[in-house]
Amino acid sequence: MFDEMLxxxxxxxxxxxxxxxxxxxxxxxxxxxxxxxxxxxxxxVGITFSVYGDDxxxxxxxxxxxxxxIIPASQWARLEKGLAQRVQALNLFLKDVYGxxxxxxxxxIPANRVLGNAQFRKEMLELNVPSGIYSMIxxxxxxxxxxxxxxxxxxxxxxxxxxxxxxxNRKMMxxxxxxxxxxxxIAPVAHYPDLLLETLRQGAPxxxxxxxxxxxxxxxxxxxxxxxxxxxxQMGVELVEGKDLIVDDxxxxxxxxxxxxxxxxxxxxxxxxxxxxxxxxxxxxxxxxGLMRAYRAGRVTLANAVGTGVADDKSIYPYVxxxxxxxxxxEPILHNVPTHICSEADSLKYVLDNLEQLVVKExxxxxxxxxxxxxxxxxxxxxxxxxxxxxxxxxYIAQPxxxxxxxxxxxxxxxAPRHIDLRPFVLSSPSGVRMVPGGLTRVALKEGxxxxxxxxxxxxxxxxxxxx
Amino acid sequence: xxxxxxxxxxWMARYTERAENTARLIDIxxxxxxxxxxxxxxEASLAGMLGLAELLPIYQKKFxxxxxxxxxxxxxxxxxxxxxxxxxxxxxxxxxRAVRGQITTGMWETMxxxxxxxxxxxxxxxPLSDPGKFFEWVQMRSxxxxxxxxGTMFKDEAFRFVRLGIFVERADSTARMLDVRFHAIExxxxxxxxxxxxxxxxxxxxFYHWEAVLRSLSAFEAYRKVFRDTISGTRVAELLILNPDMxxxxxxxxxxxxxxxxxxxNGNSGxxxxxxxxxxxxxxxxxxxxxxxxxxxxxxxxxLADIDDLGGRIRQDFLVL
Lengths: 468, 321
Known about the structure:
The complex is a heterodimer.
Chain A: H1 17-24, H2 30-45, E1 48-49, E2 60-61, E3 64-72, H3 73-97, H4 102-105, H5 111-115, E4 137-146, E5 149-156, H6 163-176, H7 178-183, H8 192-202, E6 213-216, H9 225-235, E7 238-240, E8 245-248, E9 251-256, E10 259-262, E11 265-268, H10 272-275, H11 291-296, E12 301-303, H12 309-312, H13 320-328, E13 335-336, E14 340-341, H14 345-353, E15 358-362, E16 371-373, H15 379-391, E17 396-400, E18 406-411, E19 414-423, E20 425-429, E21 432-435, E22 440-444, E23 458-466
Parallel strand pairs in A: 3-23, 5-13, 6-7, 6-11, 11-12
Antiparallel strand pairs in A: 1-2, 4-5, 4-20, 8-9, 9-10, 14-17, 15-16, 15-17, 18-19, 19-22, 20-21, 22-23
Helix pairs in contact in A: 3-13
Chain B: H1 3-32, H2 39-52, H3 56-63, H4 68-77, H5 85-98, H6 105-123, H7 126-129, H8 131-152, H9 157-194, H10 202-216, H11 220-227, H12 233-242, H13 250-264, H14 270-285, H15 288-294, H16 296-319
Helix pairs in contact in B: 1-2, 1-4, 1-5, 1-8, 1-9, 1-10, 2-9, 5-6, 6-8, 9-10, 9-12, 9-13, 9-16, 13-14, 14-16, 15-16
């Protein structure tokens, strides 16, 4: 078990020593009282999310932990390079598989794994994506398992969420503990919305001088509505719903108090399936009829592009290092977790023989649902998964159970180590790849749990990239 | 601006204003019930208020008799009564949530914390245990939200739709309130004349009646300032309908509607502006005597229809998708 703050002998690692001194100098109960203050503020600000299955309109707070997660700047520098490299390769891959298909012809990835993938959108073939960038906003999930030993757990290239918590967590920490920020040199993150706006504007269709950008939300009752509204506000652009948009003559317009106004870039927070009832799910009330026509005509930019799911699918994940070698001619800076693709007979046999040690995930699963964590699963759960694996081997992958790093976290009985991960947000535009230092740290609040998803009782922490 | 955004801003403001006006209306009814010899009138005016909002049948089905406690349960706490303060504050907050990106952080936090505190106060039972304090709280929250709007919001189209919502709602509410209060005193005068010898002197009773009306619209001090005379129903009506400097008068609300409509005008809104302008200038040149000649109730009924027409037209011109 690797703890990011404490050495095995109980001593504090150097990059946490400032925080530790600060905490020791406060009276007992100080953090607890600040915690209550933070909860009150979050509720007042309305930083809440709704959970599917709860009553409509029920809002919950994502538990916020006051102990920051600190990453030394030297480690971050390497991560940043690795993230840029990885996202660059993933975008080249998307352009390739919806275009010439070089990587398939070269035999680097079996063609049927891409073309037969449920996330592959044939509608995107031969479609010229403005600026050629498919995933302008990516969230790459990283885990740390030892001293400067990081792995990429998964790539999120569709509609990654959580960045608003990264920003609000920082704001909250600065409000509660201004003195801490005076004592540390912590890289700022508040300019993220500015970078995002710039990225979106640069992605506009050619020849648009002053593009109009909007954020497209499924609406008030979506679990991430707060984030949609927040980002629109921070960028100073309209937050629209599908019903606010119309497509006329292959051009997208929004309905305003002064008639129709053209829209050039849509930062859409709606899944592909719901985007356009004309092409995808015909029952969708959330999308915009004719949007794909406008997209095909090159008259609007969708961020992210349709069909990016084929690159972040768990069955494609094992090939990302090869993509980096193929497109960039470089060795990957960030490691992949060794992954067994259960549709391959040898792998399946190995997985079935070793279920007690492995994590098994649904290829298309997300949100921490539908997975088996072998070491903590019951016999019945393992038997259940064995049956599923035999019935549908191609729906699963398996990985060794990683021992995610822990970070001290406030729990009922005081401060105790809890497992954490990290989701940096990576922005890509024609002028390059950029990100703000750090990202969102999620923490599994249940003792021993490795599931950090907010829908399953995970919390968040402020993430500091601090000068060494 | 998005039509949907304008719609939400407009209704956010209307519902906030409505919560305040409902609080004012019930508060005065309850205060009157504390005065000796006024119980009947208070009860009649509470019933009249429910009748005007067309709520009396629903109320009677749920609660039966009209009494202060049930009226509070119905008009404050009832989630199923679309005119309750619960619904008004909830709708105000949901509309604010739909446009939280277009309003200032301060405005959103005010709307949000109003709703959260409201739930807490209801939980603690304040509306029933100390209604006066509770209604004052509702009014103060409305003042706060208006103040923070004026103090922080960029004066663009969005601001204008908020202002439109406030004044359309307030004109409507002042007209309804006057209608109820005049109706109450007329029916009481009829009864008194017929039978009640032991009631306090008519003039004294009238004083308390009109004083309550003025206070409920924060107009008592202004009355003294404008008329320097004893309190009479006619002068109260004149102040609250025609005086353009009285913040809750119908004339003053209509002037604001005209100004704000002008600011947001688009190609479709010419007729709406014309009608609003006509209504405002009528109010400017009308005298209270002319209104009384028509009969106050009839005149107010026509006015309420005109305000309703304006609301519908604003919706047609700007808000409907």
